[in-house]
Amino acid sequence: IFVDEFQNIEVGTSTDRASVENTLQELINFTHTRFVLVGTKSPEAHIKSEALRRRLVGERGQVTWTPLSLGADWTEFLERLWEWQVTSKKTPLSGEIIENMHRLTGGVPSYAKRLFTAVQGTIISNELADEGITVHRLWRSMAELFPEQHKKFELAWRTGVRKPAAPMKDAALVGEGAGI
Fold it and tell me: Over the chain, what is the mean pLDDT?
Protein backbone atom coordinates (compact mmCIF):
# COMPACT_ATOMS: atom_id res chain seq x y z
CA ILE A 1 0.00 0.00 0.00
CA PHE A 2 1.37 3.40 -0.97
CA VAL A 3 0.86 6.20 1.54
CA ASP A 4 1.75 9.44 -0.22
CA GLU A 5 2.30 12.81 1.44
CA PHE A 6 3.10 11.08 4.73
CA GLN A 7 4.64 14.29 6.04
CA ASN A 8 1.07 15.53 6.60
CA ILE A 9 1.03 13.44 9.77
CA GLU A 10 2.65 16.53 11.33
CA VAL A 11 -0.60 18.48 10.98
CA GLY A 12 -2.48 16.42 13.56
CA THR A 13 -2.16 16.42 17.29
CA SER A 14 0.06 13.98 19.15
CA THR A 15 -3.09 11.93 19.82
CA ASP A 16 -3.85 11.84 16.08
CA ARG A 17 -0.28 10.77 15.31
CA ALA A 18 -0.45 8.01 17.92
CA SER A 19 -3.71 6.82 16.38
CA VAL A 20 -2.09 6.66 12.92
CA GLU A 21 0.87 4.74 14.37
CA ASN A 22 -1.40 2.25 16.13
CA THR A 23 -3.49 1.74 12.99
CA LEU A 24 -0.43 1.16 10.82
CA GLN A 25 1.03 -1.26 13.34
CA GLU A 26 -2.21 -3.24 13.53
CA LEU A 27 -2.55 -3.37 9.74
CA ILE A 28 1.01 -4.61 9.36
CA ASN A 29 0.62 -7.17 12.15
CA PHE A 30 -2.68 -8.64 10.98
CA THR A 31 -2.50 -8.35 7.19
CA HIS A 32 1.27 -8.70 6.61
CA THR A 33 0.85 -5.96 4.01
CA ARG A 34 3.84 -4.01 2.75
CA PHE A 35 3.64 -0.23 3.13
CA VAL A 36 5.55 2.34 1.12
CA LEU A 37 5.48 5.68 2.92
CA VAL A 38 6.29 8.59 0.62
CA GLY A 39 7.02 12.07 1.89
CA THR A 40 9.68 14.35 3.25
CA LYS A 41 11.99 13.25 6.06
CA SER A 42 10.27 15.34 8.73
CA PRO A 43 7.55 12.80 9.66
CA GLU A 44 10.22 10.22 10.43
CA ALA A 45 10.73 12.00 13.78
CA HIS A 46 7.01 11.67 14.57
CA ILE A 47 7.04 7.86 14.51
CA LYS A 48 7.61 7.30 18.22
CA SER A 49 6.83 3.60 18.38
CA GLU A 50 10.03 1.58 18.15
CA ALA A 51 7.95 -1.50 17.34
CA LEU A 52 6.37 0.28 14.37
CA ARG A 53 9.76 1.49 13.13
CA ARG A 54 11.05 -2.10 13.18
CA ARG A 55 8.01 -3.29 11.26
CA LEU A 56 8.27 -0.53 8.67
CA VAL A 57 11.87 -1.26 7.84
CA GLY A 58 11.72 -4.99 8.50
CA GLU A 59 10.37 -7.87 6.48
CA ARG A 60 6.73 -6.73 6.63
CA GLY A 61 7.08 -3.17 5.45
CA GLN A 62 9.17 -0.58 3.76
CA VAL A 63 9.63 3.08 4.45
CA THR A 64 10.65 5.32 1.58
CA TRP A 65 11.58 8.93 2.18
CA THR A 66 12.75 9.54 -1.38
CA PRO A 67 10.97 9.49 -4.76
CA LEU A 68 10.18 6.12 -6.33
CA SER A 69 12.75 4.65 -8.68
CA LEU A 70 11.76 3.72 -12.20
CA GLY A 71 10.75 0.10 -11.77
CA ALA A 72 8.04 -2.17 -10.38
CA ASP A 73 6.83 0.18 -7.61
CA TRP A 74 6.58 3.14 -9.99
CA THR A 75 4.78 1.06 -12.61
CA GLU A 76 2.32 -0.29 -10.04
CA PHE A 77 1.67 3.24 -8.76
CA LEU A 78 0.93 4.48 -12.30
CA GLU A 79 -1.26 1.46 -13.09
CA ARG A 80 -3.45 2.30 -10.09
CA LEU A 81 -3.46 6.00 -10.99
CA TRP A 82 -4.31 5.27 -14.63
CA GLU A 83 -7.56 3.61 -13.57
CA TRP A 84 -8.86 7.11 -12.73
CA GLN A 85 -8.71 8.40 -16.31
CA VAL A 86 -11.72 10.59 -17.09
CA THR A 87 -11.01 11.68 -20.67
CA SER A 88 -13.43 10.40 -23.29
CA LYS A 89 -10.60 8.69 -25.18
CA LYS A 90 -8.88 6.32 -22.76
CA THR A 91 -5.14 5.98 -23.24
CA PRO A 92 -3.51 2.67 -22.35
CA LEU A 93 -0.51 2.96 -20.04
CA SER A 94 2.57 2.19 -22.13
CA GLY A 95 6.22 1.79 -21.25
CA GLU A 96 6.92 5.09 -23.00
CA ILE A 97 4.37 6.90 -20.82
CA ILE A 98 5.72 5.21 -17.66
CA GLU A 99 9.28 6.33 -18.46
CA ASN A 100 8.26 9.86 -19.42
CA MET A 101 6.03 10.33 -16.36
CA HIS A 102 9.02 9.35 -14.22
CA ARG A 103 11.34 11.71 -16.08
CA LEU A 104 8.84 14.59 -15.89
CA THR A 105 8.02 14.17 -12.19
CA GLY A 106 11.27 12.84 -10.79
CA GLY A 107 9.41 9.80 -9.48
CA VAL A 108 7.46 11.86 -6.94
CA PRO A 109 3.95 10.35 -6.72
CA SER A 110 2.35 13.64 -5.69
CA TYR A 111 3.74 15.36 -8.78
CA ALA A 112 2.62 12.47 -10.97
CA LYS A 113 -0.93 12.76 -9.63
CA ARG A 114 -0.94 16.51 -10.25
CA LEU A 115 0.39 16.13 -13.78
CA PHE A 116 -2.10 13.33 -14.51
CA THR A 117 -4.97 15.53 -13.28
CA ALA A 118 -3.73 18.65 -15.06
CA VAL A 119 -3.22 16.98 -18.45
CA GLN A 120 -6.74 15.58 -18.34
CA GLY A 121 -8.13 18.98 -17.34
CA THR A 122 -6.37 20.55 -20.32
CA ILE A 123 -7.75 17.92 -22.70
CA ILE A 124 -11.30 18.27 -21.38
CA SER A 125 -11.36 22.08 -21.10
CA ASN A 126 -9.94 22.58 -24.58
CA GLU A 127 -12.44 20.11 -26.03
CA LEU A 128 -9.75 17.82 -27.35
CA ALA A 129 -12.09 14.83 -27.18
CA ASP A 130 -10.25 13.00 -29.95
CA GLU A 131 -6.95 13.28 -28.07
CA GLY A 132 -6.06 11.03 -25.21
CA ILE A 133 -3.10 11.40 -22.88
CA THR A 134 0.00 11.40 -25.04
CA VAL A 135 3.68 11.78 -24.19
CA HIS A 136 3.65 15.07 -26.12
CA ARG A 137 0.66 16.33 -24.11
CA LEU A 138 2.35 15.30 -20.81
CA TRP A 139 5.53 17.21 -21.72
CA ARG A 140 3.57 20.25 -22.85
CA SER A 141 1.40 20.28 -19.72
CA MET A 142 4.40 19.94 -17.42
CA ALA A 143 6.30 22.74 -19.20
CA GLU A 144 3.29 25.09 -19.27
CA LEU A 145 1.69 24.40 -15.89
CA PHE A 146 4.73 23.58 -13.74
CA PRO A 147 7.67 25.34 -15.46
CA GLU A 148 9.95 25.58 -12.41
CA GLN A 149 9.69 21.88 -11.55
CA HIS A 150 9.95 20.94 -15.22
CA LYS A 151 13.30 22.74 -15.50
CA LYS A 152 14.62 21.16 -12.28
CA PHE A 153 13.63 17.62 -13.22
CA GLU A 154 14.95 18.00 -16.76
CA LEU A 155 18.30 19.31 -15.47
CA ALA A 156 18.49 16.47 -12.92
CA TRP A 157 17.75 13.93 -15.64
CA ARG A 158 20.34 15.36 -18.04
CA THR A 159 23.10 15.70 -15.43
CA GLY A 160 22.25 12.65 -13.35
CA VAL A 161 22.34 14.82 -10.23
CA ARG A 162 19.22 14.54 -8.09
CA LYS A 163 18.35 17.24 -5.62
CA PRO A 164 15.40 17.08 -3.23
CA ALA A 165 12.22 18.08 -5.01
CA ALA A 166 10.58 21.30 -3.92
CA PRO A 167 6.80 21.33 -3.55
CA MET A 168 4.79 22.20 -6.62
CA LYS A 169 2.66 25.25 -6.15
CA ASP A 170 -1.00 24.23 -6.05
CA ALA A 171 -1.91 27.57 -7.62
CA ALA A 172 -0.40 26.31 -10.87
CA LEU A 173 -3.17 23.72 -11.06
CA VAL A 174 -5.85 26.35 -11.33
CA GLY A 175 -3.91 28.59 -13.68
CA GLU A 176 -4.95 29.51 -17.17
CA GLY A 177 -5.33 26.51 -19.42
CA ALA A 178 -5.33 23.99 -16.60
CA GLY A 179 -9.05 23.46 -17.04
CA ILE A 180 -9.69 22.50 -13.44
Answer: 76
